[in-house]
Structure formats: structure tokens, C-alpha cells
Specification:
The protein is mainly alpha-helical. Helices cover 70% and strands 3% of the residues. The chain has helices at 2-14, 27-53, 62-66, 68-71, 80-137, 141-162, 167-194, 213-228, 233-239, 255-277, 305-328, 333-360; strands spanning 287-293, 299-303. It starts with a helix and ends in a 5-residue tail after the last helix.
Length: 365
């Protein structure tokens, strides 16, 4: 009887499963539901805690970045961190990238002024010698062309080594300095913006942001009302301070990304113009008529692959300038300030150097 009574009581406890009662029947189900609720509510907290505890490679340098306005003796103002990023960028570029750029341009000028004229004379004098030698040895025309190209490359290599303007170091060294510096500063700024400081870099307003006129009028009216009630000084300034988008936020005004795109495009066009003026020895200017014709009477035109590569690189950089606008529109405004500062430095640097090169240009001899 005791067993039957116990079984009957167990059955009665199970009856709410078929009724409209919301009370759970089995304690395991209730525990599972509570566990899911606890897990779902604890996930954001755990995620935030793990993000806060995640170490960053450049985190030890963040305090130095935060103290940059004091190091530069900038007055306390609404945009002291943005101004410190701008001035710090120009100081870094002047200290590290400007000497390399001057070194690169000197090598390029030696290529144009010293190697160029001698290379043109070699191209005019060497083919008849190789042709005469090939005829004496009975070589076919294809072998003559191959021997000529080998000798031309050897002579060009000798000239560039003699005047210390070998093309590969001239191209590689500036990249080896500029790219790591750009990436390192970008990562440092990103780390500083991720590690939110309520009174530091990440809380400063975007420098080019301005409140709407209607909102500004409301703030002014509120300030007058509070002043009339006896609130003044620092308390009034704190109560009426307008908080807009910060350097940690994405720039929704698009002024920064668009300005960056314009600066980058201007740098590309200026660089292409300078390359046309400071170009090393080439076989021709894109296309050169040979005076020969095919069997069907069409004229044979030689294509300068070097000029075509320059044109391809220029078009690629133009496309990248547009892509960079889209990338910067999704980046924190603090990074956009740095990128815009670096692009403006490059534009000013190349303009000044172009003027200097034109004023001091030597006639090739």
C-alpha cells in the first residue's frame, strides 16, 4: 500500500504537465531554463571582462601618447589631443621619413643627370658593335638581339653601381621605413582608443564637428537660464558643455574621410607628375615607332613596359585613394586624424621638394 500510495502521489505531481499551469513539473527542466537564462545574461559581462583583460602589444606606450599634449606644451583646450596627433605626426615624419625621402630623390637625380645621358650614348654606340661581332661569327638575328640585351643590362648595371643609384634599394628602403612607422602609429592609436579613458584621448570631440545651429541656440538659452539662477564659473561650464562625437567614434560627418581621399589623390597626381620629370633611363615614352612594317603593311610599334608599369601603378593608386575613403569612414576618428595628418605632410613635402628640384635642376651633360 505504501508503494502504491507513493506511486499515486508521484502521478498526481506529474498531472500539471497536462494542465494549463505554468509551474514546471520536473525540477531538471527548471534548472536547465535557469542555467540558460544565467548563461545568456552572463555572456555580455564575460565578453566585456575578457575584452578588458585582453593584453595589447602596444599598451605600455599608451601613457606616453596620453601625455603627448603636455610634452608639446599645448594649452588645455577642446582639441588638444587632435592637435598633438597632428604635430606628433609631423615631427615623426620629419625625423624618420624625410631624410629617407631626400636620400631617395638624390639617387633619382643621379640616375637622371649622370646615368641617363651616358645610357643614351651606350644605346646608340653598342648595337653596331654587337651587330658587327654577330655577323663575323655568323649568328642569326635572334641571337644578336639576345646578346644585345645582355650587354645593355650589363652596362646599365655598371652605370648605376658607379653612381650609387641602383633602382632596387631606391625603391625598397623608403618602403621599409614608411610602412612600419605608419602601421605602428595606427596600432598605437587604435589601442589607446580601445582602452577608453573618460578624461583622455578617447573622450575628446572630433575637431571638425560643429553642433547644429538649433542645438547651439538651445544650449546658449540654457546657459543664460542657469546663469540667471546664480550658477557660474566651472559649474556652469560643466553643465552647459556640449558632448558631440569623439575621437573614439566613427566620423559620421564624412568630412575627415573625404578630406583624406582628396589629399591622397592629390599625392598620387603629384607623384605621377614628379615621376615624369624625374624618370630614369627608358627605352621610350610609352610607344615608339620602329620604322618597320609587318607582312600586311602595318607599322610595328614598340611598347615601353616601364612606362606602362608606371601608368598601371598610378591608376591602382587612384583606385586605392577612393577605397581609402570607404575604409576611413568606418575607422575611429582618431585614426582618421592621424591618416589625414600624414597625407597632408606628404603633400606639403612633395610640393616643397618639387619646387626645390625645379630651382636646382641641372642640364644633363
Amino acid at each position: 500500500m505504501l508503494r502504491i500510495r507513493g506511486a499515486h502521489q508521484a502521478t498526481l505531481r506529474a498531472r500539471p504537465l497536462f494542465s494549463h499551469s505554468s509551474r514546471p513539473v520536473v525540477g531538471v527542466a527548471s534548472s536547465a531554463t535557469d542555467a540558460r537564462r544565467t548563461l545568456s545574461t552572463s555572456l555580455p559581462v564575460a565578453t566585456e571582462a575578457s575584452a578588458a583583460a585582453q593584453p595589447y602589444l602596444l599598451e605600455p606606450l599608451v601613457p606616453y601618447l596620453s601625455s603627448l599634449p603636455d610634452f608639446l606644451h599645448l594649452p588645455d583646450g577642446s582639441h588638444k589631443y587632435a592637435l598633438s596627433i597632428f604635430l606628433g605626426t609631423w615631427l615623426l615624419r620629419t625625423a624618420f621619413t624625410l631624410p629617407v625621402t631626400i636620400w631617395q630623390r638624390r639617387r633619382t637625380r643621379r640616375m637622371v643627370e649622370q646615368v641617363g645621358p651616358r645610357w643614351e650614348r651606350i644605346k646608340a654606340e653598342l648595337p653596331p658593335k654587337i651587330r658587327a661581332r654577330s655577323r663575323r661569327m655568323g649568328h642569326p638575328y635572334e641571337l644578336f638581339q639576345k646578346e644585345l640585351q645582355v650587354e645593355l643590362r650589363k652596362e646599365l648595371r655598371t652605370l648605376t653601381q658607379r653612381y650609387k643609384c641602383t633602382p632596387l634599394p631606391t625603391f625598397i628602403v623608403p618602403l621599409a621605413v614608411n610602412v612600419p612607422l605608419f602601421i605602428s602609429v595606427s596600432l598605437l592609436l587604435r589601442t589607446a582608443l580601445i582602452l577608453h579613458d573618460p578624461a583622455g584621448l578617447s573622450s575628446e570631440a572630433i575637431p571638425w564637428w560643429r553642433p547644429p545651429a538649433e542645438l547651439q541656440e538651445r544650449f546658449d538659452a540654457s546657459a543664460k537660464l542657469l546663469a540667471a539662477r546664480g550658477i557660474e564659473g566651472e559649474a556652469l561650464a560643466q553643465l552647459t558643455k556640449m558632448h558631440g562625437p569623439t575621437l573614439q567614434d566613427v566620423d559620421r560627418t564624412m568630412l575627415g574621410p573625404i578630406g583624406l581621399g582628396i589629399s591622397t589623390m592629390a599625392n598620387v597626381e603629384l607623384g605621377q607628375w614628379l615621376r615624369r620629370g624625374l624618370r630614369g633611363p627608358r627605352e621610350g615614352e610609352g610607344h615608339k615607332k620602329t620604322g618597320k612594317k609587318t607582312a600586311d603593311g602595318k607599322e610595328i610599334v614598340e611598347v615601353d613596359l616601364g612606362v606602362m608599369r608606371e601608368s598601371f601603378m598610378g591608376n591602382t593608386l587612384r583606385v586605392m585613394s577612393i577605397v581609402f575613403v570607404a575604409i576611413s569612414s568606418q575607422a575611429p576618428a582618431g585614426l582618421v586624424v592621424y591618416w589625414l595628418s600624414s597625407a597632408s605632410y606628404t603633400l606639403v613635402q612633395n610640393t616643397v621638394l618639387a619646387i626645390y628640384d625645379k630651382a636646382t635642376a641641372k642640364t644633363p651633360t
